[in-house]
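Q: Here's a chain of 254 amino acids. Please give me its 3D structure as tokens.
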Amino acid sequence: MEELLVLARDPHAWAALATLVIMEVVLGIDNLIFISILTNKLPEEKRSSTRRIGIGLAVFLRLGLLSGVAFIVQLTTPIFSLFGHGFSWRDLILIAGGLFLIYKATSEIHDHVTAEEEREADADTGGTVVRATVAGVIGQILILDLVFSLDSIITAVGMTDDIPIMVIAVVIAVGMMLLAADPLARFIGHNPTIVMLALGFLLMIGATLIADGMGVHVPKGYIYAAMAFSGLIEALNMLARRAQRRRPLRKRPR
């Protein structure tokens, strides 16, 4: 308790907390998009609760990782070299996470492209569409959150050594994710073009994780700037389509 009071009086601690919260929120965007796309494949009545369970379990996962932060920092130590680059456990986890993300994004794109044909085939044959399961979705959420949490914790250690600040930043960021999860999922679900754009983002993030694991650092500012620009263009396209739909209604015969 005394340590928390000391930190509360330290302006540098507040600055570190604000920086970590911003970093956690920005890194959480990737995770939130992935969660929204996965849970939208569930039946309507299970989507919101599954999102909350997945994000809630992710909190315990991150706090558990923070309790072993000394061990996590050691994951950056190279364990073998290949092609002149020393690979650490962190690198291998990032590469595996990037491959998983690319696989999931590619399979989701394939599912969305062929969804209409499969629905027609099922209607003709009397079959049913195979949907995702709650346990499967939560498991995939935790796998990807492990990758993002590991990267964010290692980055956070470089900003501050105070574990309480890291814990508070994680709790605040996850609380904001819980508030934004349902509105973002509904928005993605109601706009099919946004789904494809979000899956394209996940492909790019997966490739970035692999590049980072291979020793090629891509500044995340470039990634998020490209995402913001693409989102702005898609927003303009949505406004243009909405204006087109309204235009015939204004032209009434006299």
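Q: Can you summarize the key feature?
A: The CA atoms of residues 114 and 231 lie 24 Å apart.
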